[in-house]
Amino acid sequence: MADDAEQAIREILAGETDVSIAEIGRRIDWRHSRTLLARKVREIRAECAVTAVAAARGLPGSATSFVGRRSELAELRRLLGRARLVTVTGPGGIGKTRIAVEAAASFRRAFPDGVRFVELASVRSADLLSQTVCDALALEGATAPGGSVEEALVAYLRDRRMLLVLDNCEHLVDGAAELVGRLLEQTVGLRVLVTSREILSVSGEHVLNLPPLPMTADGAGAPELFAQRAAAVYTDFALDDSNIDAVRRICERLDGLPLAIELACTRLAVLSVHDLADLLDRRMSLLTVTSRDLAPRHRSLQAAVDWSYELCSATERLFWQRAAVFAGGFDLQAAETVCNDEALPVDDVLDAVSALVAKSVIVSETVDGRTRFRMLETIRQYGWGRTPAAEQRRLHARLLDYCARLIIEVEVNWYGPDQLAKASVIEANRGNIRAALHWVMTDPAGKESSMVAARALGAARFLWACGVSIPEHRMWLTRALELDSVDVCTKGRILAVLALVQTLQGDRDAADYSILRARELSTGVDPVTEAFAQHTAGLREFFAGEFGPARDLLDAAGARYRALDAGPALLSTLQVHRGMLLSVTGDLDEAYATFGEVYDATDAVGERWFHAYATHGLGLVALLRGDPDRAAALATSALDRHRAFGDVLGTTLMTDLLGWALAARGDGRRAAVVLGAASALWGSVGRQLYGSERWNAMRSTAIDDARENCGTAVFDRAWERGRAMSAADLEAFLFDDSDRDQRESVAEPCGVRLSPREAEVADLVAAGCTNREIAERLVLSTRTVEGHVERVLRKLGAARRTEVASILGTA
After folding, report:
1. Which one has a higher pLDDT value, 239 or 385?
2. Apex 708 CA angle, 702 and 710, nearest 5
3. Strands (DSSP E) along 326-432, which ranges?
């Protein structure tokens, strides 16, 4: 009965989160047990809390307050209420991104599946549009062999009520229009909010032309923004009769453009408001004469940016130009590495960064104790436009060198205490890596740069575990094979890594060819790569169900690794794969020893990634030995240790094991959620469970157990809830302590916590149903119901069934 009322309850809670249960009951005309209604409301509120957390995480923060634009926000709300696509347009610097973020934060309660913000300014190729959206959704580019990222994105969004914000689309307008058009055509509840200097011209598009901030008599609008930003420079500043006219002159000269006003305010450190107004008058008059080809608003912005540029020292200007090469922000080390030379020594870089932050040219952000810098896209484009073409090519090459070094450093440090730090650097620089690789693969970059990219990708065996999705990793490897002048040894390494990625995706036909070519090119030339290709061949045979040949290949590769002293990372990888094989072939003692060896060795050196996989392996052995409680604990521990990495493959594998263990121990509803999430997340890798028939059979058994345990109707709802989760949603479900108790159990009036299934059984016991009647009602075996009833009586402290009703307060 409560399930039938679920949609009505959700609609009420979407509009009023704090409405009382009694009021909800009145509105939906609830005539049944108040306990049932209260349980359902708590369950929905818990789900909404997880969604709200995920939504809040999906929006960029801001260091300054939002000023004005209330009428525009109201218009955006009206447009989004009647249209599925709204594009906010206007010139650079007018505040398109800022109002989109504010709208997404203000309207998020209207979207049960949350809001997601996708920044596209750093994306250089339309080929990466779908991939970037998947990354923002924590789908990591969900594809399966033969499918596309776009198809998986459509599948994920098809039935979701979500707001998707696509920011800065003007340089990819054709690709964005094609993607948005398909998403809207093949989804039902999706809304898309776009910011762009150019409209998409998609059917059904509604456009909000963002005007300049107004000049109001009471000082609101542009003067209010000026006052707030001026106070950040000059603490005692406030609008009053002595300065309001000068402030209005400044704002009018700058045409009410927020970015121009903010840049102008930085001058107040050395100028009075009146001096600023006079100087700006002269500059604008000059620009009007010399730049008649520019529209008035473009002249306003150019005046502000030109002035900021001219007031910079020669060193600051040079750094502004060079830092514009970064596509995804940068830290101090990146700036010193890419931007320095004789004209800009390393010692001057920090001073230049500090000065440009003070001038609002560069934005400083600190996340997890790390400081990174970025430019607004308008500012970045201005700096890049000031950079000569030859200098642009040199900067691209230096950015590629830097990114290649990051990739190689991850490989070198993949086994040890610095592993996570190096992986985090890759994830933070994903935009820069994309820009560098796109440049070398689309422009005539030259033989030297081609080799830099190829060697880095040939070394990048674990790039897919650092926030670069498996499909994207495969794309770059495939394109690298087409680069000119790549030597045989490097091509063999690229093919070997490509074979691993294809095998993990379950694309065994493609992997066959890559393994064959890798072994051909590396034989007698690169023995470690030859052994790695043999290792991957064993993994491929394992997933294909050829367990005998798989073991022979893996054992031979392991012997070669040891003889070649190939390093602990490759050997640990092989041991994890070998332990997985031994587990499914029933050699549990040897599997336990193999995983235990990796577990102990990694624990001794502070390594986390292999340690998580070894923990998962020990959990798998525990499950196969008939200990689902220990298996669930180990799977949860593995997930907890592993979640700091951007490795969706490992997350999915460990989630599946947790679902199997929960099902085996009788926690059917939670198992259904977790298994549903795992099923959806496997799409972000490729075929379900690597396409392994044996592992898919193990999952099928778990699904059957979970369905029998909680009933088909409950299972189906829980499964779909899990299917709708992104990786971020799943993490919140499993590890968000703020509402874990509500998700895992139901609080009864007596203070005892029952699982959702136990609570359901308790209500039926209280209603006087026999075990057989409960079994028929819930589509369970009578034996399963007997176990539930025993646990209910024990938890409630009831000696007889007849006491349950009075304890629950339903008598």
Report:
1. 385
2. 100
3. 363-367, 370-374
Distance separating alpha carbons of residues 785 and 779, to the nearest angstrom: 10
Burial track 512-549 (b if 16+ CB lie within 10 A, e otherwise): bebbebbbebbeeebebbbbbbbbbbbbbbbbbeeeee
CA distance 802 to 791: 15
Alpha-helical segments (H) within 187-257:
222-233, 244-253
DSSP state of 138: T
What rounded mean pLDDT belongs to the chain? 83
A 10 A CB-CB count for 741 gives 12
Cβ-based neighbours of 303, under 8 Å, separated by 6 or more: 253, 254, 260, 280, 283, 284, 287
pLDDT tens, position by position, 225-261: 888 888 877 777 788 888 888 888 888 877 788 888 8
DSSP 65-120: ---S-HHHHHHHHHHHHH-SEEEEE--TTS-HHHHHHHHHHHHGGG-TT-EEEEE-
Q: Which tokens is 203 given?
A: 């059917």
Q: What is the mean pLDDT of residues 158-163?
A: 83
Q: Are 658 and 735 in contact (CB under 8 A)?
A: no
- How far is Cα 376 from Cα 362, in angstroms, rounded to an integer? 8
What is the 8-class DSSP label of residue 507?
-
Angstrom distance (rounded) from CA 9 to CA 4: 10
Please, which residues bridge with residue 753 across strands?
747
Question: Strands 85-89 and 205-209, how do they pair?
Answer: parallel
Neighbours of 342 (CB within 10 A): 5
In the numeric block, the tokens 């989160």 are attached to 17
Read off the pLDDT of residues 760-787 as tens digits, 9 standing for 90 and up: 888 888 888 888 778 656 655 666 778 7
Sort 434 into a burial class: Cβ within 10 Å, 0-12 / 13-18 / 19+. buried
Looking at residue 218, its pLDDT comes to: 58
* pTM, two decimal places: 0.71
* Packed helices 782-796 and 756-766: angle between N→C axes, nearest 10 degrees: 90
| Cα–Cα dist 569/412, whole Å | 9
The secondary structure of 553-592, three-state, reads HHHHHHHHHHHHCCCHHHHHHHHHHHHHHHHHCCCHHHHH
| Burial class (CB within 10 angstroms; exposed 0-12, middle 13-18, buried 19+) of 433 | buried
